[in-house]
Design goal:
173 residues, 32% helix, DJ-1/PfpI/YhbO family deglycase/protease
Length: 173
């Protein structure tokens, strides 16, 4: 399995888009990666927008991002909550500084905006935050998946298959 030994952070908070959280998690696990759900409190259950729950394995404070090979930010309304946590911003900035894979889909771009890492980067997102992404200095494209170095971005659930593949491929390199 090509991702055996890789460890990934999957951020979680309430109102995540169910498929945008679970599809990449399952895809990466199929290839041998260990994926930890990381939220405000360890053991806390978070409901997805459509009712599929996700329980945090660890709290933001419990992990050291240096121990991980990449990070995934889910879409839905969750990113608006996640970007309010200093530890989340620090994790994303750490991954960016180390050039480790960062995956973001749909509204997840809000977290990258708050981490101030998009200036000069090529990305996509839900068209609903296109202006936010561009105002943060990003060059925005209306494409299923955009990869700029270690950042992989996607628009919405129909783009999950190529998004998860691109993220897995980046981890495997």
């Amino acid at each position: 399995m090509r991702l055996e030994g890789k460890k990934i952070i999957q951020l979680v908070s309430k109102d995540f888009e169910d498929l945008e959280l679970w599809y990449p998690v399952l895809r990466l696990q199929e290839e041998g990666a260990t994926v930890h759900l990381v939220g405000e409190k360890a053991g806390e259950e978070h409901p997805g927008k459509y009712g599929v729950p996700a329980t945090a394995d660890y709290a933001f404070e419990d992990i050291n991002p240096a121990d991980y090979d990449g990070i995934l930010v889910p879409g839905g309304w969750s990113p608006d909550k996640l970007r309010r946590y200093d530890k989340v911003i620090e994790m994303v900035q750490h991954m960016d500084n180390e050039r480790k894979p960062i995956g973001q889909i749909c509204h997840a771009g809000w977290v990258l905006i708050s981490a101030n890492i998009l200036n000069g980067r090529k990305v996509t997102s839900t068209p609903g935050i296109k202006d936010d992404m561009m105002n943060a200095g990003a060059e925005w494209f209306d494409e299923a998946v955009v990869q700029d170095e270690h950042i992989v971005s996607a628009r919405r659930p129909p783009d999950l298959a190529p998004y998860a593949k691109a993220f897995a491929d980046l981890l495997a390199d």
